[in-house]
Each structure stands twice: as C-alpha cells, then as structure tokens.
Amino acid sequence: MTVSEALSDFTQQYVTQWKTETGLPPASIDLYGVPSPCIVRTGENWVYWEPQPFNGKDKDLSRVAAALDIELQPSIHPFYTTQLAGDMKAQFGSLVVSLVQVWNDEDFIRLQENLIGHLVTQKRLKLSPTLFIATLDSDLEMVSLCNLTGNVVLEKFGSQERTVLSANLVEFLQQLSPIVEMVK
C-alpha cells in the first residue's frame, strides 16, 4: 500500500465517522473564513469540509529539500500532496494526534516555510532531521517522520528525545482511529 492510499483510506474513515455520528461532514472552527475548495457548507462560525484532490503547482516538497540542500524521505511528498483537507484528529495507541493537512494553495506555501524553519532549527541544534506530520495537545511534542530512517516518531521539540511509533508512514496511518469532536 502507498502513502497516498493509506492517507486516502484514513481520510475516508474520518469523513464516514463524522457523517455517521453527526449526519454531516467534518467541521472546523479554526478554518472558518479561510477559502478552500474543500468547503461544502458554512455554519455560524465553522465550515464543513470534504477532501479534494491536491492540484497545486508544486507536486512535491522539492523546495524544502532545495532550501536545505538535503533529500527528503520520499514518503513525505505524497503525505502533503495527495489531497487538500482539514486537519484530522485521531487516536494512535494512547496518543491523541491531529494530522497536519494542506487546506489551500497558500497553506501549502506556509507548510513548506514551517518545514524549512523546523529543519533549520534542528540543524542549528545539531539534531537529526525530522518532518512533522501531526500535532498533539502539548506544544512540546509532535509526531514526525524521521528523515534518516523513515520511522514515524514522537519527538520532544528541540531535544534528541524521540520514541519510534511505527516503522513507516503507511503503517502509522493504518493504525489511526478517527476522533469526532463536535463543533460547539
């Protein structure tokens, strides 16, 4: 199975879970007022969304690689360029994570800038490079793809403290369970 297939499968489970529990597609307060082809309906101060194919000018993260003169793990490219979608909350073992996704073309540019900033900080701190893929409630930890091994790791920001969560991105995505959080 490819990263694109695993991501699409999880996204479909996520959307289905939302529709089953609420009768509506996924909703987001954070993305209200931010244009995206994903928006299918607008609420009082939230948007309902469904994933759309990624059609950006850049088909990969080669600008990030070029900015730092490094090669990126091949699996990171389809993770961010398969679809446009809102961030998706999920359970991975005992962790609650929010998968970072691209919402629109401007968001893809911002994502690349953030990845570059993350990698520059790691280089300055002499840490091995990682590429974030999910956030946690804690600002001190994130889930990332190790650029050297391809492992998905839980990392403490700015430190060498890393815990391997799965051998690769496909395996990680296959182990996620969608979490529906109602918009209030």
From TrEMBL:
> Mind naming one GO cellular-component term on file for this protein?
cytoplasmic side of plasma membrane
Could you tell me the membrane topology recorded for this protein?
Peripheral membrane protein
Pfam families referenced in this protein's UniProt entry, alphabetically: Syd
Which terms are listed as keywords in the entry? Cell inner membrane, Cell membrane, Membrane
- Which top-rank group of organisms is this from? Bacteria
| Entry's localization field | Cell inner membrane
Statement: the UniProt record of this protein carries the keyword Acetylation: no
Q: Does the keyword Cell inner membrane apply?
A: yes
**What InterPro entries does the database record attribute to this sequence?**
Syd (IPR009948), Syd_sf (IPR038228)
Q: Which family does it belong to?
A: Belongs to the Syd family.
Q: What does this protein do?
A: Interacts with the SecY protein in vivo. May bind preferentially to an uncomplexed state of SecY, thus functioning either as a chelating agent for excess SecY in the cell or as a regulatory factor that negatively controls the translocase function.
Q: Which NCBIfam families match?
A: PRK04968.1
What name does this protein carry?
Protein Syd
